[in-house]
Amino acid sequence: MPGAGSRAFRALLATLIVSFAFGPAAQATNGYLAHGTGTRAKGMGGASVASAWGSTAIDTATNPALGIFASEGFESGLGIFSPRRSFSAQSSSMNGQSGTFTLASGNRDSDGDWFPIPWVAKSWRVRNGNGRVSAAFYGRGGMNTTWDASDSQATFNAGNGVQSFAGVYGSGNAGVDLMQATLSLTYSSRLGERVAWGVGPQIAMQSFEARGLGKNAPFSFAPFTRTFASGSFPSDLSDRGHDFSWGWGASAGLLWQAGERLSVGAAYQSRFQMSRFEKYADLFAEQGTFDIPASLKVGMAMELSNQLTMNIDAE
User: Fold this and answer.
1) Whole-angstrom Cα distance, residue 220 to residue 286?
2) Do 70 and 58 form a contact (C-beta atoms < 8 A)?
3) Of 100, 72, 104, 78, nearest to 90 (Cα)?
4) Do the Cβ atoms of 123 and 133 come closer than 8 Å?
5) Of 4, 183, 211, 307, whose CA is between 20 and 30 Å from 122?
6) What is the helix (H) or strand (E) element at residue 79, kind and residue range?
7) Contact assessment for residue 59 and residue 75, using Cβ atoms and an 8 Å cutoff
8) Using one digit for the tens of pLDDT, what is the confidence trace for 224-250?
């Protein structure tokens, strides 16, 4: 006679099959957050918060509790991110009149389509204990856009009547460059035989640059007294080179091995309190504030056979 664990597994499997049949379509993007960290997680579209089988140190970036299952080997990897950014503008009869902002008609492609994103990680067993310490360093990027002024122009009223200016924002070559890197340190252990947990601090660095946005000065986040009241527009808005921001956060995770072939996981990443981008204090709200948002992940992993595991996550 089947045991309670076997019956629960079959009931859960049936529920998931129904969910697949009638569930909504998967979303194509994940904001500016990555679809998983590390090669294995990316290969599963990021659905790895409950994957205890075959976990390595880099998986602690997804769920700190997975560190207890990691081997002690050093690992590294390199992802290639290749987003293709473009836009199409159609001619307008307004042509900058009545406060409109008009782009020259045509198709435009952003330069720079290949972005390497590295990661390294390692795990150590704690002497005279059952826990593990893991370290993971990983990047996030590929947010760059580069719009060449030689094949685009904008038409609008810049205060001296309607004029045309080179560049998609009327200020020459334009674009933004955002890069982030995180160092994660976690400690993981077990509560009994079936529950694993992990927790640890994280340090983050981010770099940002904006170009070709100077004509937007009248609409910036600069305080009123620094702009219109003084008769001058802000300077910490565009073309200030790369600026750097540092901050910290914390992560925690749980994993419950509900059966021999079923596990359930959850992980929480706190908001990163980042220092301000002072060179772009007039571009970002709150004088350059750009914190990294918090995230919560829950999921389950089912080993359907020795060769097939199904993962379902929500973030």
Assistant:
1) 11
2) no
3) 104
4) yes
5) 307
6) strand 75-81
7) no
8) 545 444 455 667 888 899 999 999 999
